[in-house]
Amino acid sequence: MKRLVLSVIVLAATFGLMEAAPFQTLGLLRTPDAYVLPHKAAELVLVGYYRNVEAPSYVGDEYNGFIPYGMIGVGILDRVELGFFGGDDVYFMNAKLKVIQESGTLPQISVGMDNIFSPVNKHRAQDYNPDDYPDIEWADHPDKVDYEYYSPYVVASKQAVFGGLSWMFNLGWGQNRYTGQVARSRIFNGLFSSIEISPFKDFAIQGEYDGKDFNAGLKYTVKNFTFRLGGEALEDLAKGSEGNGYEKNLRLAFGVSYLFDKYAEAKRRPELRRYAQDTDMDGTKIVTGGEIPVGVTESGTSVSILTPGTSLQSPGIVESSSYKELSPEVKDLLAELRNLREERQKAQKALEDLRKWLQELQEQNN
Fold it and tell me: What is the number of H-type helices and E-type strands within the chain?
């Protein structure tokens, strides 16, 4: 019930704030995370982007309407990810390098460069408009600030499990496309952050601040397919109070991606369940082989997780207070061990009944 109430609240807030945004390849909506595609893996993203911009006034109708675009990302040596973007009258490449691998206590850290080779080849692109610079082809492009060329960044990401939910946090700093477009949004000077919460399996709610805009989105995964709905530029809602037309701007994007990972030996993110086992359970230990009793004590102080090759002796399992934090695989294992214990108890009872019957038969013969 707690998850359901939280999900309803966050979903209502998400739809209430949604303005939309084109998706990027190397992270959430418009911001990157520190994770990279594994070696020999690739991801194809196709997006339908609807844009209807009435302010600023110099934006022409040719930029409004339905804009399809695509992206593809590839992983190299479990350390580098490259992304390629094409559509919306622009093209560019993104690159990201993993510097520090995430562990149970340390975040993952990566550095990257966005919008490599972008035709929006001026910094502070928001300062250019067709009236002042008629020779610049993209001066009236409504999303030119998102396509500003050569935008470096550094980002840290950390996964966590608490409150019975899965979380991911990202915090980074970047330049160019990550900088604010007006004085009040330049206070953070390139800082960006994002959060992802998964109240249910394969479903996630995302929110981010990309250095100038507040964005929100939803994500649902079915095997190798991922479906996304996203939103951008919440500050337009505040601008609307000034009566300048920004409140009439509308951007909506829906994306579908497919992950090609048949030959990959790793995953884009380190296994989240491992952190739940390591950090959310007291006395948890992983057994890799040998003969060792398996069980959880009455006080819930120890759990032993078996891997192939481990023999089982005298199983005895009772649920601890941390049982709800276990991964589904570990819960299934505990259920199997519980069944083994029950079968062992039944066998012991049957042997005890047989022993008593033999004793009674012997007494009768005497």
Answer: 4, 16
AA identity, residue 336: E
Dist CA 65 CA 85 (whole Å): 19
Cβ-based neighbours of 281, under 8 Å, separated by 6 or more: 303, 320, 322, 325, 326
Closest CA to 65 of 46, 51, 86, 48: 51
Q: What is the pLDDT of residues 249-284, one digit of tens each?
A: 777 789 999 999 999 988 888 876 655 544 444 443
* CA distances for 247 relative to 15, 50, 231, 234, angstroms: 16, 16, 14, 10
Cis before 56? omega within 30: yes
3-state helix, strand, coil in the chain (%, to 5): 25, 40, 35
Determine which helix (DSSP H) or strand (DSSP E) holds 66, and give its type and residue range: strand 65-76
Total residue length of the chain: 366
H/E element, 73: strand 65-76
**pLDDT tens digits for range 24-48:** 655 668 899 999 999 999 999 999 8
Q: Per the structure block, which two tokens stand in for 218? A: 């939803």
88: CB partners within 8 A, 6+ apart = 22, 49, 67, 69, 143, 147
Question: Which stretches within 255-327 are classed as H helix?
Answer: 272-279
User: How would DSSP label each residue in 171-237?
Assistant: EEEE-GGGS-SSGGGGGGTTEEEEEEEEEETTEEEEEEE-SS-EEEEEEEEETTEEEEEEE--THHH
First-residue to last-residue Cα distance in the chain = 66
Residue 233: C-alpha distances to residues 57, 141, 336 (Å): 17, 16, 50
Nearest one of 305, 300, 308, 299 to 274, comparing CA atoms = 305
Whole-model pTM: value is 0.69
CA 360/CA 111 separation, integer angstroms: 79
Query: Radius of gyration over alpha carbons of the chain, in Å?
Result: 28
**pLDDT per residue as tens digits for the range 149-190:** 999 999 999 999 888 889 999 999 999 988 876 666 677 788
CA distance 77 to 264: 10
